[in-house]
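Why do we care about 3D structure at all? Because function follows from shape, and shape follows, mostly, from sequence. That is the central idea of this module. The next example makes it concrete: a single protein chain, its amino acid sequence, and then its structure expressed as tokens.
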Amino acid sequence: MTTSVKRTPGSDKVTPRRRVPGWAKAVGAVVLVLVVFFAGIRLSVLPGLKDLFGTETQDRSGPALLESIQDMSRYDAASGNFQIVVDLEKDTKFLPDAIRGTRTLYVGAGTVDAYVDLGKVGEDDVRVDDDRTSATLRLPHAQLGKPALDPERSYAVSKQRGLLDRIGDLFSGNPNSEQAVQKLAVRHIGEAAEQSGLTARAEKNTTEMLEGLLRSLGFEEVKVTYGN
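And the structure:
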């Protein structure tokens, strides 16, 4: 390391001045270049660098396996779209919410289908007169299918978690799980479908479909009833 001497004017005192080593200047220059380099990437001011360090997504999933095939004999006659706002709060006794507790506000959107199971129609449920101008059909009542939650239209509005819950999420294999609110949303959507008159609409649509089909085949009188 080289040391130079600096003399102060009007004084005989000599102040030594240290020179910066060459290796320190080199390290400083490299650090400066890296700062500018990564700043350019961050701000996208250097052309081509953003694409050079961009992320790439690869789908390494295996092929889907067919587990079973089931023949369907039901006629989906109506479908309802529902939306529910779920406000789920879990508290712990003797502990404030800031320490232990969760509250999730979730918007769940899904559909419920109403169908008539034509596979349950027997020979005695279909009557045709001799000249094939009149037909009477007895069908089972319409039923509701299972609610299907739409992940693209369902989302969490807000999540509040206590300190212990946040720490637990760090060691959990499924952090920030929304399974509880999703199940609750599905249950509420199913309950709403039962009160919506969806099955009555399905029976009306099924009747109109069968009447139009049989009349196109030459039947002049078509009667459709529902019952067990």
